Give the backbone structure.
Amino acid sequence: MRGKFITLEGMDGAGKSTHIPTITQILQVRGLEVLVTREPGGTELGERLRELLLHQPMHPETETLLMFAARREHIAQVIRPALMRGAWVISDRFTDASFAYQCGGRGVSYDKMRVLESWVQEDLQPDLTLLFDVSVEVSTQRLAAARDPDRFERENADFFSRIRAAYLARANENPHRFRIIDGSQPIKIIKQLLEEVISSI
Ligand code: TMP
């Protein structure tokens, strides 16, 4: 049986990565094989593209194309083979991040993004997307503690407001697979919520 594909999304500082061990554990207790991966990245080529994407200034459309190039490789090498052998895949970000950051944040055309989405993913969509939502203020405060901010983390509050709005719009368009989690809640409460959400799929 094909495994399920879970993606984690949210602004920088929303805390999504903190919860990966919890989700992994919930699934492993059920006896499932779990593969944790991330975007941009997840393959050798993808990790090299990640270095460029996070640190090298470039045109917003170049940024978009490189995100999708890394994604194409990730789907072919990692995501599809794992799902096909029955593993559950947890990806720290996927295409919703491109809609939020490149469309919402950088202003790249939504229609072009849709073309890339169907080209690169074909029929693949996450079964569940956990959107960790926090206010721009919370995100900014958490990022202030980051020692060496990357090209995205250095952006201003307006950029992050647009990203948050784009994520919420995307969740509205895809209510069947999105669950919005208030990322400003205590970790213990978020863990309980995750138990409920994961056990329902
Ligand atoms: P991370 O810090 O969550 O690993 O993500 C790295 C950065 O890459 C983050 O600031 C968001 C950005 N990003 C995009 O702009 N578009 C994308 O499609 C993805 C996957 C990530």
Notes: The radius of gyration is 16 Å. The first helix runs from residue 20 to 29. The pocket of thymidine-5'-phosphate is lined by residues 12, 38-40, 67, 92-93, 97-98, 101-102, 152 (CB under 6 Å). The chain has a mean pLDDT of 96.
